[in-house]
Amino acid sequence: MTHSSANPTTNHLQSTVTLSNGVAMPWLGLGVFKVAEGPEAAEAVKEALRIGYRSIDTAAIYGNEASVGQGLREGMAAYGIKREDIFVTSKVWNADLGYASTLAAYETSLGKLGLDYLDLYLIHWPVQGKYVDAWRALEKIYQEGRVKAIGVSNFQIHHLEDVMRTGQTIPMVNQVELHPLLSQQPLHDFCKANGIQLEAWSPLMQGQLLDNSTLQAIAAKHNKSIAQVILRWDIQRGIVTIPKSTKANRILENGTIFDFELTDEDMSLIDGMNQNLRVGPDPDNFDF
C-alpha cells in the first residue's frame, strides 16, 4: 500500500492514494455532513464535480443521500464524467448495525443514491456489541463484489483490533475526527503499520481554527488561507481529507492545495498544536 502523501506537483484534485486492496481513493473529497437534503446538497455535489472533485462522502444519518445522488447524476451528465471516475462513500448508521440490518441498510443507501455500487462503505460508529456483526456484513458485500472497498469510522485502536481479530478482512479505511488540535498520531501510526488508510473528518475543526495565530503566520507565508494550510498538512501526513462546504468559492478554495508544499518547520509547528481535543463525540463514551 502507498503511504506517501500526495506529491504537490500533481497539482490536481484527482490525485489518489492506493488502498490496501489496490483501489485508488482521491486524497481530497467533499463532505456533506449537515448539508440539507434538497437543492443545497445536490448543488454542492454538482459544483464540486465541476471544479474537479471526484470524491463525495455522505452517510445514511445525514439524510441527504437522495440529493447527493441527484447531484452526482446531474454533474456526470453536465461535465461528461463516468461513474467509474467518481469515488462515493456512505456509512451504515448505529441503529442498523447487526448482520442482516447492515445488509439491508446498504441496499437502502444504494437505492437513495441511485447507484449500483459504492466505492467505500463504512461502519459509522463502533457501537459496542454490534460492530463485529456489522463488519461481517460488510465483508459479505465486499466478497460479492458489490462494493469496491470497506472500512470503519471513529474506530480507536482497540476497536480496530477487535475487527482484525474476528474478521477475515482488515478495514481499508478508518475515517476519524482529525485536525491540528486532535492530530491522532498514535492511531495514524497503528493504521499505517496495518495498511489502513486514515481519513480526516472535521479537518477544519468546524471553523474553530480560522483565527489561530500559528496557522495565520504559516498561511501568510505561503499566500494561502488557514483552511488550505490545514488541508495541505493532512495530505502531507498521508491522510485523506474531506472538508465540508456548500459555498462554491469555499469548495474551490479547499481544492486548491496541490500547488504548494509546507516546510518541515511548518509541519512541526502544526503537529505541536495537538491537545487531543475533540469537537465531536468520544467514540468510547458516545451515547448511542
Automatic annotation (TrEMBL):
Keywords: Oxidoreductase. The record marks 91 as: Lowers pKa of active site Tyr. Pfam families: Aldo_ket_red. It comes from the Bacteria. Gene3D superfamilies: NADP-dependent oxidoreductase domain. PROSITE patterns: ALDOKETO_REDUCTASE_1, ALDOKETO_REDUCTASE_2, ALDOKETO_REDUCTASE_3. This is Aldo/keto reductase. The keyword Oxidoreductase applies. SUPFAM superfamilies: NAD(P)-linked oxidoreductase. The active site is at 62 (proton donor). Belongs to the aldo/keto reductase family.
